[in-house]
Design a protein that fits this description.
By secondary structure, this protein is an alpha+beta fold. Helices cover about 35% and strands about 25% of the residues. It contains 16 helices and 21 strands. The strands form five sheets. A seven-stranded mixed sheet has the order 11-10-12-14-15-9-13, with helices on both faces. A five-stranded mixed sheet has the order 1-6-7-8-3, sandwiched between helices. Strands 18-19-20-21 form a four-stranded mixed sheet. Helix 8 packs across helix 12. It starts with a strand and ends in a 7-residue tail after the last strand.
Length: about 600
């Protein structure tokens, strides 16, 4: 944090808003579930947005503007009662903290990225003020009395990404026009949203979302990105611009942004031709390269639903976004058709992203127990900003192909998270910026990320001038389908690796055991685990529960579909016939229904 010196903390008072208590919204319940009940947890659980201000802006302008925003949006002055009788409590008056730092940056120079990250680090390290609202804070960097940048920080309990964008947009309006610095009439607030969600109509919507999740979770793969683990020396070096930061070892994150003039030129042409939107086209391109690379055409993966359905939700500020599931049939040779299918799937997903998260978890556990899988959100799409699908092209469609030579990749190390492959789209100066991130660079290394991003780039550039035959994907994108060896097989729509399943069973039963793929009644393979007695598991149910508990982070494994507990192991444990000749103590699928 060199170059920043803390000078003062200003307490910005607000008053005049309504004071109200209400039940929690589904979004608040969801956020509390992954944050935990400590609503005053550290600022690493907050979202920040850096804003530059016009020359001549004073600290008084900043604090007056922030006070109006807090008065206008009740989520910024809400506290939470957790445990029994949990609810949201909106304060009618109070104060928020604004920390002021002196920076040694040169006067008049552009605000550098490092200056913003230093300010974020300083605010995160600053203690939470007991007399101010900890869910909304701000920091200001000044040089010789001139404000260089304002950092707005909001808890995930107060906002989602789109809500923070609303706050920043309104901040920019108010900071430039003092006459507009008033709260205005009361709009739709989280306390009102809670009433809507607890109504009969709201409950029906939440129930429909769970039915949608049940249908898709019952068929989605254990992992959409289940591929052979990269072997040292087999992966090609990344050839593209910008150095790749050091990120190695199990569970290490890595991310990259696609800085592509070609993509920006192509998107409006494709959206206009297919009568869809820019996010739908981006999602379709992601689906195309993912399906081609993995060999999976029935794509089901997590996708963020902003839940802003209805005019009253346009400027709503609160934690509202939740996961939905995007289900796309990629079994088509036409990219335009895939765009239209993805558009329809996006709309269906958007209608099913509001639910009680604990009920969803129970549903996922029930289905996971039956299928022998674990929902890990291994593949996800977060399109945080929704762009206007009627954006005019900035040039002829042929210009996209010509612009490919100007594509660059910007690598970074993101905060740790568990998603195996995440596509993100954000607003960068009014243009869509697409990136891929992994929480496991050992499984999805830099070369894989590069090839997927460049595949998307080249596909969109080719599609700018007309429809693309997806059978030509390797020719167009350079992306080749993954090659899986004989140890891989499809079980219940999941690609699984038998050695990985064997490793799960060995750790679970702690006794001699062997997994075989045996034909079931319908002719499809059933993973069957033969287990010798003497270990900690004595029944198929105990064996199944032990296997399920070990699936986290194992994307190419699933629990067996049948367990046979034998009195002893045969001499040749690799011979299934020898296992079948052993006395059987217990056998069955081990599912919940079988006690």
């Amino acid at each position: 944090m060199g170059g920043l010196v803390f000078t003062e903390r200003i307490h910005v008072k607000f008053a005049g808003g309504r004071a109200v208590e209400a039940p929690l919204t589904l979004g608040q319940i969801n956020t509390l579930e992954w944050l935990g009940d400590d609503t005053r947890a550290g600022l690493y659980r907050m979202m920040e947005w850096a804003v530059t201000v016009p020359d001549g802006t004073t600290l008084r302008d900043v604090t007056d503007t922030l006070a109006v925003l807090v008065e206008r949006h009740e989520s910024l002055r809400t506290s939470f009662v957790t445990g029994d009788g949990r609810r949201q409590v909106v304060s009618g008056s109070g104060q928020v903290a604004v920390d002021v730092y002196e920076t040694d940056a040169a006067a008049g120079s552009p605000v550098a990225h490092e200056e913003i990250t230093d300010l974020i680090a300083a605010l995160q390290a600053a203690p939470v003020d007991d007399v101010a609202d900890s869910l909304f804070r701000a920091a200001v960097a000044v040089h010789d009395g001139a404000i260089r940048v304002v950092l707005i920080a909001c808890s995930h309990l107060a906002v989602d990404c789109e809500s923070l964008a609303v706050i920043v947009r309104q901040f920019n309006q108010l900071i430039r026009d003092p006459d507009e610095r008033h709260a205005g009439p009361l709009t739709h607030q989280p306390a009102d949203q809670a009433i809507v969600e607890h109504s009969a109509r709201g409950r029906r919507r939440a129930e429909a979302s769970l039915r949608y999740w049940r249908q898709l979770t019952s068929r989605m793969p254990q992992s959409l990105c289940a591929m052979p683990r990269p072997v040292g020396g087999d992966e090609r070096e990344v050839q593209h611009d910008y150095a790749v930061p050091s990120s190695g070892g199990e569970g290490q994150p890595l991310g990259c942004w696609l800085d592509s003039p070609a993509l920006r030129l192509a998107l409006p042409h494709i959206a206009a031709r297919t009568q869809t939107t820019l996010p739908m086209v981006l999602s379709a391109a992601f689906c195309a390269v993912l399906s081609w690379r993995t060999g999976v055409s029935d794509l089901v993966f997590a996708s963020l639903a902003n839940n802003r359905i209805g005019r009253e939700m346009h400027d709503y500020v609160g934690t509202l976004a939740q996961d939905s599931l995007l289900a796309v049939d990629a079994g088509t040779t036409s990219f335009d058709e895939l765009v239209r299918r993805t558009g329809g799937a996006t709309l269906r997903a958007a209608m099913h992203g509001l639910y009680e998260v604990r009920l969803l978890q129970e549903l996922q556990e029930e289905i996971g127990d039956r299928r022998g899988t674990l929902f890990q959100r291994d593949c996800a799409s977060n399109i945080n900003i929704f762009f206007d699908g009627e954006v005019r092209p900035a040039g002829p469609p042929e210009a996209a192909q010509e612009a490919l030579s100007r594509t660059a990749l910007r690598w970074h190390i993101p905060p740790y998270f568990r998603v195996l492959l995440l596509m993100r789209v954000i607003d960068s100066d009014g243009e869509p910026l697409l990136g891929l991130t992994t929480g496991h660079a050992d499984l999805i290394p830099a070369a894989e990320i590069e090839s997927l991003l460049l595949g998307i780039d080249r596909l969109l550039a080719a599609a700018a001038t007309g429809d693309v035959d997806l059978r030509r994907m390797t020719e167009i994108t350079g992306l080749t389908p993954v090659v899986r060896g004989p140890e891989w097989l499809r079980v219940d729509n999941c690609w699984v690796e038998l050695p990985e399943v064997q490793a799960v069973v060995d750790e679970a039963v702690q006794a001699p055991a062997r997994v075989f793929a045996e034909p079931g009644d319908d002719g499809r393979p059933v993973l069957t685990a033969y287990v010798a007695a003497g270990g900690p598991v004595r029944t198929p149910r105990e064996a199944h529960r032990a296997c399920l508990s070990l699936l986290n982070g194992r994307y190419s494994a699933m629990a067996p579909g049948r367990y046979v507990i034998c009195a002893r192991a045969p001499e040749d444990t690799g011979d299934p016939a020898a296992w079948r000749r052993q006395p059987v103590l217990a056998e069955g699928d081990g599912r919940e229904a079988q006690r």
